[in-house]
């Protein structure tokens, strides 16, 4: 399965928990050895839950009864293709290729099947005031990335977001960074926007595939493309006027090390970035 290798084989953030943004929707308990759909499990009987916030929204699908989607393909402008390959349709609904989550329905996700996101990972070296790169105890340079705090769950995360219907992933990466980390630059920063556009034209793909997102259900799940944009001498990002906006309530440079706690699968992506740049972890 493409991209999956950097993530743990079995997801855990989308199992055995109270569903996010609900106070009482419990998932049917799914032990690690029962996630795989190929394992017959006749007692499996999860609740069906779709959050009221997604009903009737222009960015969301209709309910399961009046759903006329084209699965595993581009459906009009909506991308219903999974990076994992062809997913199964069971009882007219897509089946999460990463296995059982303990909940049916769509939860608070807009789409049945894959919901596509994009994650821009902007990095630089940590430097002293004099500009020297700071090393850790193991004598390796410390990498930092632009982190935002999500407004919904308050967890720190990469400033990523959903790919709009018909939008290119590269456009989403830039748009989300502008919205969440730069609060959409003001007119007076037109130059910074040009610099950023050039900087975002050279990224390295870190991951492409499904992610362990707490919103996933048996029928709806998150997939993402995570791309690293590295500023080797720190000159590009130094000019950017960071300010949280949209779904983010805080923004800052965060040191990368194995103790960081981040939303969904973001820590796995960052570990990969650290390996790429031979930085300290
Ligand atoms: C977030 C992305 C994240 C994706 C999957 C999106 O809502 O904005 O940063 O990777 O969900 O968890």
How would you sum up this structure, described in words?
The protein is α+β, with helices and mostly antiparallel strands. It has a domain at 116-277: Nucleoside Triphosphate Pyrophosphohydrolase (Alpha-Beta Complex), CATH 3.90.79.10. The chain is built from three helices and 13 strands. Strands 7, 8, 9, 10, 11, 12 and 13 form a seven-stranded mixed β-sheet that branches. A two-stranded parallel sheet has the order 1-6. The mean pLDDT is 92. The structure holds beta-D-glucopyranose. Residues 117, 119, 157-158, 160-161, 211, 213, 222, 224, 264 line the site of beta-D-glucopyranose.
Secondary structure layout plus pairing:
Elements: E1 47-50, E2 74-75, E3 78-79, E4 89-90, E5 93-94, E6 103-107, E7 113-125, E8 143-150, E9 156-157, E10 161-162, H1 169-181, H2 190-199, E11 204-210, E12 220-231, E13 248-255, H3 266-276
Number of helices: 3
CATH superfamily label of the domain at 116-277: Nucleoside Triphosphate Pyrophosphohydrolase
Helical fraction equals 10-25%
Strand coverage percent: 15-25%
Bound molecules: beta-D-glucopyranose
CATH architecture heading of the domain at 116-277: Alpha-Beta Complex
Largest β-sheet summary: 7 strands, mixed
Our measurement of the CA-to-CA distance between the termini, rounded to an integer number of angstroms, reads 27 Å
Bulk shape: globular
CATH topology of the domain at 116-277: Nucleoside Triphosphate Pyrophosphohydrolase
CATH top level label of the domain at 116-277: Alpha Beta
Mean pLDDT: 92
Structural class: alpha+beta
What is the β-strand count? 13
Topology as H/E string?
A: EEEEEEEEEEHHEEEH
Instruction: Give the radius of gyration.
Output: 20 Å
Task: Point out poorly predicted stretches.
Answer: none
């Amino acid at each position: 399965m493409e991209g999956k290798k950097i993530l743990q084989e079995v997801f855990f953030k989308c199992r055995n928990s109270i569903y996010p943004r609900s106070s009482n929707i419990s998932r049917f308990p799914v032990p690690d050895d029962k996630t795989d759909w190929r394992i017959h499990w006749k007692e499996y009987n999860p609740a069906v839950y779709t959050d009221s916030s997604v009903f009737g929204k222009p960015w969301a699908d209709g309910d399961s009864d009046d759903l006329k989607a084209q699965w595993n393909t581009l459906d009009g402008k909506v991308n219903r293709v999974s990076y994992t390959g062809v997913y199964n349709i069971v009882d007219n609904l897509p089946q999460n290729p990463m296995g059982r989550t303990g909940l049916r329905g769509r939860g608070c996700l807009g789409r049945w099947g894959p919901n596509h996101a994009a994650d821009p990972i902007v990095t630089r070296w940590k430097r002293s005031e004099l500009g020297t790169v700071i090393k850790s105890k193991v004598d390796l340079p410390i990498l930092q990335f632009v982190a935002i705090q999500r407004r919904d769950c308050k967890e720190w995360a990469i400033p990523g977001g959903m790919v709009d219907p018909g939008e290119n992933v590269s456009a989403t990466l830039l748009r989300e960074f502008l919205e969440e980390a730069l609060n959409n630059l003001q007119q007076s920063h037109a130059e910074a926007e040009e610099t950023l556009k050039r900087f975002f034209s050279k990224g390295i793909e870190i991951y492409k595939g499904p992610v362990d997102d707490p919103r996933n259900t048996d029928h709806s799940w998150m997939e993402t493309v995570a791309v690293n944009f590295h500023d080797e001498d720190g000159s590009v990002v130094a000019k950017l006027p960071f300010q949280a906006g949209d779904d983010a309530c805080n923004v800052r440079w965060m040191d990368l090390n194995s103790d960081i706690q981040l939303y969904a699968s973001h820590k796995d992506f960052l570990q990969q970035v650290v390996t790429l740049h031979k930085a300290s972890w």
